[in-house]
Design a protein that fits this description.
Layout lengths: L2 H12 L6 H7 L3 H6 L9 H22 L4 H12 L1 H10 L10 H4 L3 H23 L1 H11 L4 H7 L5 H12 L5 E8 L6 E8 L2 E8 L2 H17 L1
Antiparallel strand pairs: 1-2, 2-3
Length: 231
């Protein structure tokens, strides 16, 4: 894809004209693409992602602090719900980032979860590129229009709660019972164990999750179980 596609994207989706379009191209370049094109491409988006992550957190924190009077704990949970992978990946999808992503052939065939992480990282990298090329206000405008606008929906559906807390509230309101988590399997050596955990309601398996710790696996299981209650 040539540079004009990225310039058009910047005008149409970001509302700006990049002084240095190469910055934007780098924001869309995954490490795997560099590995496949070492002779022609030397830079991937991880440094921009690092910068964009900090800008994103500041913009969201500033918005929440100036808009709401809730205590720190609630504001922290609200911020986490906005900047988590699922939220920023969804924002990137709405802005059609995927059409410009530069990935290796292998990454293009990756899982949906891996793809969501790549999209989220790209979003942060674009924020970093915007900040460097256009300044803080331009980055803030993009974050506000693409991400912060979803916050009322997050408040409405309760997804600002972490999956375990959200599931517990949902299950107790529907059934009066409390979810129970059980380890279904664990594999690997002690220092690299992978756990599979099931979450049960009234003895019935409602969700299953895998992760490098029991806590991480529980969160995935709770997220899966929440989907059954949403349906």
């Amino acid at each position: 894809m040539d540079i004009s596609a990225y310039q058009l994207f910047a005008k149409d989706k970001l509302g700006v004209e990049f002084k240095d379009p190469e910055l934007l191209i780098t924001a869309f370049t995954h490490r795997s693409y560099v590995n496949e094109h070492k002779k022609t491409v030397t830079e991937h988006n991880e440094r921009l992602e690092f910068l964009g992550d900090a800008v994103l957190e500041l913009v969201v924190t500033e918005y929440l602090y100036n808009t709401f009077k809730e205590p720190e704990g609630i504001l922290t949970n609200w911020r986490s719900s906005l900047v988590r992978t699922e939220s920023i990946s969804a924002a990137a999808q709405r802005y059609e980032f995927e059409t410009l992503l530069r990935l290796s052939r292998g990454e293009k065939r990756g899982t949906l979860r891996a793809r969501a992480q790549i999209m989220a990282n790209c979003y942060e990298a674009v924020v970093g590129a915007l900040y460097l090329d256009q300044g803080y206000e331009a980055a803030k405008k993009f974050i506000s229009e693409s991400l912060i606008v979803t916050f009322q929906e997050i408040l409405k559906n309760g997804s600002w709660l972490d999956p375990k807390s959200h599931l517990q509230e949902t299950v107790q309101s529907v059934t009066g019972f409390t979810p129970v988590y059980k380890v279904l399997n664990e594999v690997g050596p002690d220092h690299e164990k992978i756990f599979t955990v099931g979450v049960f309601v009234e003895g019935e398996l409602k969700g299953e999750g895998t992760g490098p710790s029991k806590q991480a696996a529980q969160q995935v299981a709770a997220e899966q179980a929440l989907n059954t209650y949403k349906k």
